[in-house]
């Protein structure tokens, strides 16, 4: 009799990816200081061509991807955005346009609708136009956004409003909810800033205090009840004040892949901040090979890389140890437990850091832009 | 409510029944004895139990759930060939899961936790009724000691597991406002297992019960199993409904619970359950733009794609959504399903109305 082969733990099985975040371009008319793009932005000349994107989408569909998030930067800044959207429709991929609604977005909207676009996620920086335009760093953005939203619902496309929350607009949470209802959105994302990329640089200017965060949660919960069946509200809490970390991108290399404008494939949009990871490019490898074989995806997939307290934790396959990039940024080691977790020995210090920053007067924003020489905070010593 | 079964075969046990007659006789046992007919079960189904009564049920039933793989392992150990073992071992996988946090037992623990129990208290089984323990243990012994045919036949209560939504555990528990959505979402994942299991067992019994005596033994085994389930509900009724005689050492309301209102970090907590926007039979449901039912060839299942979300669907939901075309009314959909599954359209309609309302509340269905 043969000895039974133990079934592989599901943590070791490579699941099929569900979502593809297609960062079509880093170009964007807005300059939000919490942008999730990397500090070093890709220039237009480095962007993938149309044929390569169409191939990537075809390969993604074959791998089991269901949702494609057409993002950026501002995805409508690409001239081939309609062609790319039509390809998604042809492949049965669910296309989600993540847009600022400014610049050329409105002019292309009808063509995107005709191409079979499934859903629009529109960012709104604030409710009050003046403050919204200060955050986004673009004059006259707000009226363009309102016009864009009106056309989305006029066409019958489902609309989600995305509001990134920070100390500059946290008092506007009720206003965002009213605005979503007024614009006919079906969903609202009240997403507290996640501190990576530009948001990490601007953290002191963005971090709200705990009382403000609690109040925003209370408001959202009350609105959910009041608007049941009318508006779905998704809430992302700031993890500096959380008890457990989020399963970043649904777990490293488990659900999502992110293709940058120049074709680098990342397990999450901030993964490039982790030194020593080898990323593969769609120009050199098939998407399937990248998903299953590339060193960057293998590095933190599953649980075998974990240290304590993650390694023996009941939640290790729930939140997969939280965010690697945040662990690196704050603790200096990407394999440490995300300090957003209350089980991390560094959690209290992280919370104190947030409290201290929130208590001080906010510094000016450092606006996102291509070619700005921003000091990479990760080259400094980890703060915890 | 129950589908119409053919009348019992009067001379069963005296002559060899055809496969069809044997199946009819087995189904008749369920039609008369399956525990969905028990008064306690009816109270549960109709939403008439108190929170503590539901707790008593969840706590006791955990012991049954926990011992099922023990029973199946005993049976597996006696199966003579690899093919049979491969089929039967799937039951153990279904119950135990193939990793920590997965499987039917874990789902039951989640349910018990969902009604307020501390996990360790449930695991200890210290608060269960003696009648629960005796019944379940009798079942394990029966399967270990009787013939293989009887052991397999005793599993055939799965034939009577409900297929309509409201009769399934998650469906019943929806009537209780203290059951959170999270508890149900976790619980309703895999209820397509039972029919698959029962098909195999029924086929085995038909093929291996080759004499009138063996057919009689198979029927008796199924009757025994029905009694195992029935007795557990008798005991629950006696202790926690009427006359309310809780035996010494059995669970008393208030015991074994996690302290309520434990201070928690603010987070996306469950919103209190409220009645969703109601649908009626004459409404015409439709999927709005941006919501699509799609067959996922890579994962070999249907999914409902919606903004930033993918809904996993059970077989019932798929059957309903395939008929949602912006033309059919709810009543017409129920009628079509009634013909397909040979069931009462009125019952189906009552089942699918809350499901449709639930989807509407998530903004993925309109009318």
Automatic annotation (TrEMBL), chain A:
Binding residue positions for [4Fe-4S] cluster: 28, 32, 35
What InterPro entries does the entry give? Answer: 4Fe4S-binding_SPASM_dom, Aldolase_TIM, MoaA_NifB_PqqE_Fe-S-bd_CS, PQQ_synth_PqqE_bac, PqqE-like, Radical_SAM_PqqE_MftC-like, rSAM, rSAM_sf
Tell me the pathway.
Answer: Cofactor biosynthesis; pyrroloquinoline quinone biosynthesis
Please state every residue range assigned to the domain named Radical SAM core: 14-226
First and last residue of the signal peptide: none
Please list the reactions this protein catalyses. [PQQ precursor protein] + S-adenosyl-L-methionine = E-Y cross-linked-[PQQ precursor protein] + 5'-deoxyadenosine + L-methionine + H(+)
How are cofactors bound according to the entry's free-text note?
Binds 1 [4Fe-4S] cluster. The cluster is coordinated with 3 cysteines and an exchangeable S-adenosyl-L-methionine.
What is the uppermost EC class here? oxidoreductase
Q: PROSITE patterns annotated for this entry? A: MOAA_NIFB_PQQE, RADICAL_SAM
What Pfam family is a match, any one?
Answer: SPASM
What UniProt keywords apply to this chain's record, in alphabetical order? 4Fe-4S, Iron, Iron-sulfur, Metal-binding, Oxidoreductase, PQQ biosynthesis, S-adenosyl-L-methionine
As for what it does, the entry says:
Catalyzes the cross-linking of a glutamate residue and a tyrosine residue in the PqqA protein as part of the biosynthesis of pyrroloquinoline quinone (PQQ).
Q: What is this protein called?
A: PqqA peptide cyclase
Tell me the gene name. pqqE
TrEMBL record, chain B:
A biological process from GO = pyrroloquinoline quinone biosynthetic process
Pathway as given in its UniProt record: Cofactor biosynthesis; pyrroloquinoline quinone biosynthesis
Keywords from the UniProt entry: Oxidoreductase, PQQ biosynthesis
Q: Name one GO molecular function term.
A: quinone binding
Q: Does the keyword Lyase apply?
A: no
NCBIfam families assigned to the protein according to its UniProt record, in alphabetical order: PQQ_PqqD (TIGR03859), PQQ_syn_pqqC (TIGR02111)
Name listed for the protein in its UniProt record: Pyrroloquinoline-quinone synthase
- Composition bias type Low complexity, residue spans: 262-278
- In terms of superkingdom, the source organism counts as Bacteria
What family is reported? Belongs to the PqqC family.
Which EC class is this protein assigned? oxidoreductase
Q: Where is the Thiaminase-2/PQQC domain?
A: 24-234
Q: What reactions does this protein catalyze?
A: 6-(2-amino-2-carboxyethyl)-7,8-dioxo-1,2,3,4,7,8-hexahydroquinoline-2,4-dicarboxylate + 3 O2 = pyrroloquinoline quinone + 2 H2O2 + 2 H2O + H(+)
Task: Give me the ranges of the annotated region Disordered.
Answer: 261-282
